[in-house]
Write a structure and sequence with these properties.
This protein is an alpha+beta fold. It folds into 2 domains: about 1-35; about 40-175, Immunoglobulin-like (Sandwich). The chain is about 20% helix and about 40% strand. It is built from 1 helix and 11 strands. The chain has one helix at about 1-35; strands at about 40-45, 50-55, 55-65, 80-90, 100, 105-110, 115-120, 140, 145-155, 160-165, 175. The strands form 3 sheets. It has a 5-stranded antiparallel beta sheet, with no helix packed on it. Strands 1-11-10-6 form a 4-stranded mixed beta sheet, with no helix packed on it. Strands 5-8 form a two-stranded antiparallel ribbon. The longest helix has about 30 residues, at about 1-35. It is globular, with a radius of gyration of 25 Å.
């Protein structure tokens, strides 16, 4: 009888050990498939944030917010909306040339956590032909700076909360608080 109790206890201990081991494997397997959370560097209007996505390193600065920003006579943000322009400056601090469309990596958020739609406007200070960063690949050689405007369409009555920007393949996001 004593031997039987030891065997039962030993069996329960073995079952518990196997269960613990399996649970640990499942948890570890889940962790291996989950990407680490991206970090966010935060700043205010007029401040710079450095982003790195090897081989690129860029210093991004939110220069000013144009709210509202005018488009040309042919531009129409739609009923109940207006255009907002985010003027950013990008300085290439690496040895590689930057060539991309900044609007593809930019987001504008409102106070109710609504993401504004990126826009392409033909006239006004954010027009692609003059200073737009919306529909054109921007080429910035090492050591050089480019400044441009990224236009967005925002629902009337909403307050702007934050603007985010990142480099392609970069898990870290630059975030500027707008209020």
């Amino acid at each position: 009888m004593y031997g039987e109790k030891v065997h039962q206890a030993s069996s329960r201990t073995s079952a518990l050990g196997i269960t613990t081991a399996l649970l640990s494997l499942v948890l570890l397997a889940g962790c291996a498939k989950t990407a680490p959370p991206a970090s966010t560097a935060q700043a205010g209007i007029g401040e710079s944030i450095t982003l790195s996505s090897p081989p690129l390193t860029m210093r991004a600065k939110l220069v000013r917010v144009l709210n509202p920003v005018a488009g040309g006579p042919q531009d129409n943000p739609g009923t109940g909306s207006h255009y907002v322009g985010i003027v950013i400056s990008l300085t290439n601090t690496s040895h590689a040339t930057y060539s991309d469309m900044p609007i593809d990596f930019a987001s504008l958020w409102t106070n109710n956590n609504e993401q504004a739609q990126g826009a392409v406007i033909i006239g006004g200070p954010c027009a692609d032909a003059t200073s737009g960063f919306a529909e054109t690949d921007i080429v910035i050689p090492p050591g050089k700076t480019a400044q441009g405007c990224i236009p967005f369409t925002v629902t009337n009555g909403l307050q702007l909360a934050r603007f985010t920007f990142y480099l392609e393949y970069e898990p870290h996001t630059a975030q500027w608080v707008l209020n």
